[in-house]
């Protein structure tokens, strides 16, 4: 009996409070032993569980060299028509269970390329809403990129397409997108766009825009921050801490192995105006896809993890096995974020 009680205490204290070491050099695996194939997606805490939605690129061989961005529609690896959106869940950011493909591009009437899926639960409508980048197969490349939205009754989908082209956004020719949910349930999209689709560089500008209450569309120019920050940027993410809204993004890095250094912008309002803060560097050689607030065990406080894709880093050549690089953010008393040193691993109390 005593042993039983000790065992129970051990189990419960284990659940209530655990130090988890997160590695950036050992591939992240699910409970089945498979390497997580979830890229350029989002990770968030909802009702005590961490949800990780991401694009699955599968087992095609990535091209050798410093860039995987060499091919568009045919026969390549990365910008293909068969991508799926995967969901993994975890109680502690360490043990991940694969919940299946929650959306498959093969279910689309119009074939195309999907990347950058982001999901949010909507408390008002009780639906799960997914936004993703969609490049119709008939298009010629990046200038045809548009935002698509899908919806599901549960976290595990299957998500059903609502529209393959959101027409309410202030800017067309959209690039990477990310979603941010405020504490009051309002949600925002941070996305980059080309004003002039005929030039690629340096025209690639970031802005933030409020979503409609149901998250299925956006509220357009009147609820757009206007472009801010550097040009030729992508990979944006937003979060809120101590009443400060942060927008973080870096230079374009199309499946590039170099990764991208990110600059921090902050504001007291989600739609800005944003002040330019510091640059966090690129010591991890990764491209930002998410900033994850996690609950620090035994407190009401949150820690923040920077998460990026390490393109062209696959241990066995399969693009789906590219590493992701995670690093804890640390803050100065004046709320600025400290430079991000490289970390092979770090331990959090979760
Ligand atoms: C977690 O680590 C902290 C400091 O590193 C330590 O004080 C604490 O006892 C550890 N907690 C558990 C449950 O191991
Ligand atoms: C997406 O899912 C389908 C059906 O399970 C599968 O055949 C296909 O290989 C998957 N695509 C990738 C890129 O893994
Ligand atoms: C684990 O792998 C087995 C065998 O491949 C498969 O049947 C099962 O669906 C997988 N389960 C999960 C949660 O991935
Ligand atoms: C915040 O404090 C740090 C360290 O004291 C300093 O380097 C940084 O310039 C400050 N940032 C702002 C925006 O004042
Ligand atoms: C990064 O490394 C420098 C030099 O070792 C150190 O002074 C600084 O505190 C480190 N920053 C963080 C956030 O750990
Ligand atoms: C964490 O990284 C350090 C430095 O590279 C290494 O010595 C240590 O073994 C690693 N720990 C784990 C748990 O991976």
Automatic annotation (TrEMBL):
<feature type="signal peptide">
    <location>
        <begin position="1"/>
        <end position="17"/>
    </location>
</feature>
<keyword id="KW-0378">Hydrolase</keyword>
<keyword id="KW-0326">Glycosidase</keyword>
<dbReference type="Pfam" id="PF04616">
    <property type="entry name" value="Glyco_hydro_43"/>
</dbReference>
<dbReference type="GO" id="GO:0005975">
    <property type="term" value="P:carbohydrate metabolic process"/>
</dbReference>
<keyword id="KW-0732">Signal</keyword>
<protein>
    <submittedName>
        <fullName>Uncharacterized protein</fullName>
    </submittedName>
</protein>
<comment type="similarity">
    <text>Belongs to the glycosyl hydrolase 43 family.</text>
</comment>
<dbReference type="InterPro" id="IPR006710">
    <property type="entry name" value="Glyco_hydro_43"/>
</dbReference>
<dbReference type="InterPro" id="IPR023296">
    <property type="entry name" value="Glyco_hydro_beta-prop_sf"/>
</dbReference>
<dbReference type="GO" id="GO:0004553">
    <property type="term" value="F:hydrolase activity, hydrolyzing O-glycosyl compounds"/>
</dbReference>
